Amino acid sequence: MELEGRTVAESATTLSQIILPSQTNPAGTAHGGELLKMMDNCAGACATKHSRAIVVTAGIDNINFHAPVFMGNLASCHANVTYVSNRSMEIAVSIDAEDLLQGTKQCCMTAYFTFVALGSDMKPTMVPPLILENEVEKQEYEDGKVRVQQRKANPQVCWMPLY
């Protein structure tokens, strides 16, 4: 059965929230884990919209913290599909922080998430192809293909704790 393709725009997702004191460290900046959780939720929604299936996080790559997110900032997480294979999707995710009093905004965090779509039997299932509408999307797709090949060439395995 051939699945109908979907565009990048159809599944693009944005989630926003004000960073509260319970989400920050003593320096008043958001905990990295809080931001990763937000990114995972946004990426998961994006992957679900693309696949119209239950999805699970299979990996996170190239996590970069570019700038702090401060208490009181509006953190906006943006996610879009960059690459799909038969059963998995790569999602590019970024977080911008907006100082609502100053009116300034900057990119604070980026990462690539890989999700696998699951069927009703909770086993990996096919995902729709990605319809690329412009040169930027085509370049992201080709770059995603390279990243997937690199992941396959260097698989990560669990390691034994030292203590």
Structure notes:
This protein has helices spanning 8-11, 32-51, 135-153; strands spanning 6-7, 13-18, 54-65, 74-84, 88-99, 104-118, 130-131. It has one domain (6-153): Hotdog Thioesterase (Thiol Ester Dehydrase, Chain A), CATH 3.10.129. The protein is of the alpha+beta class and 163 residues long. 26% of the residues lie in helices and 37% in strands. Strands 2-4-5-6-3 form a 5-stranded antiparallel β-sheet. It has a two-stranded parallel ribbon with strand order 1-7.
Enter the CATH topology name: Thiol Ester Dehydrase, Chain A
Oligomeric description of these chains: single chain
Q: Can you name the CATH architecture?
A: Roll
Domain tally: 1
Give a topology summary:
Elements: E1 6-7, H1 8-11, E2 13-18, H2 32-51, E3 54-65, E4 74-84, E5 88-99, E6 104-118, E7 130-131, H3 135-153
Parallel strand pairs: 1-7
Antiparallel strand pairs: 2-4, 3-6, 4-5, 5-6
Features:
single chain; 163 residues; alpha+beta; Thiol Ester Dehydrase, Chain A; 3 helices; 7 strands
Condensed summary:
With 163 residues, the chain is of the alpha+beta class. It has one domain (6-153): Roll (Thiol Ester Dehydrase, Chain A), CATH 3.10.129.
